[in-house]
Give the backbone structure.
Amino acid sequence: RQRQMCIRDSMKPSLSSCRGRCPIPGGVAIEGTVEVPPSKSLTQRFLNLAFLARQPVVLVGPLRSDDTELFAEALSRAGHEVSLDDDAMGLRPGAIPDSGDLYCGNNGTMLRFLTASLTATPGLWHLDGSDRLRQRPLGPLVDALCSLGARIEYLEQEGFAPLRISGGTLEGGCAEIDARQSSQFASAILMAATGAKKPVELRVRSLASAPYVDLTLDTLERFQATIDSPDESTWKISPGSLQGGEWTMEGDYSAAAYPAAAAALAGGSVRLHGVSPDSKQGDRKFMQVLARMGARVEWHSGVLQVSGTSTLRSIEVDLADMPDQVPTLAALAPFASGTTSIENVPHLRIKESDRLAAMSTELRRLGADLVELPDGLKIRGCWAEGPVPAGETEVETYGDHRIAMSLALCGLRRPGVIVKDPEVVAKSYPGFWRDLEGLIAG
């Protein structure tokens, strides 16, 4: 019988080779080491600032994913020379064309950043993206830019892409922005202001995901931008101060959360190389969430190790500063004793998908017990307190990389989970299935 099981298992397709649908092997433990991919948030900020600086920039170890390649392609079309080798990306300023059509795919960060940066770049620009990207709001960002002199036209629905941007029109002055829908509105203006004709003073109200603005400010400091902050919600930016250089990208805590959560859920241990204990990335604090739930989180000689224990505990947590980790926590919650409450994340409904609705729908499909709220989820630990259901069940990913990776975690303990369209992980973590397969094999 053991030999028959080995033969049967050897005939299963590997996770990394799955196309269209990916069966997750349930009832497995996790063990091994993961080289965490470079930070997507940092890579895109560096690309945007390289575009604005118009000086030579080298990024060592940038993330190579669908999103970052779209961004690099747009910079190439907008006059930058982009060179790639195995471990670095070089960007050199070239001749800026008189006009250009730039396509953002489903990359919301790129859309917001370029909406602002192109107002400081001479030329007539057309900016567009996928159908889902056209549903993601731009109104507060466009209004604030126009108050600084920018000329931006909506080509179809007001408040949304596609846009026509008259470049080189960002004058400067004072602006106020409501950033409750996205911190990217504030980050986009902070960076673009370095290319304005006069200083910019930006006041931010109702800021969502504040650590991402801190990450932007830290990146601006590396480019030697001149910024003053008279209070916690106001910044004054001087134009023309960016300097080029060479920088190495650090590991992505948003990506590291998935193998870390896998160990916490399935048991075993994962060692995460490439992340920094001093990182400015907001998702670094998700490791504290896992520790509160009962996982062991430790540093050993600069390597982060996360180990699972026999049981997980439910928690109540405000994830406004870590919205990308809502699906990750939601995947763990049915296995945690008690009721997990995820709060203060209404902006999660305007991501690559409506992530609250997506996780609610698919967890129910798998047999979980939960309540979907306007700004969060309440999930009962029904699989900690009773039997875990089995049976083959296909789950939708809604074209969203984080939904796919989170539902794959569920499948480690809930037998029979099949993830549809597994290729969507290429948006941020192209090696996800390979890494998960390695941990299962370990």
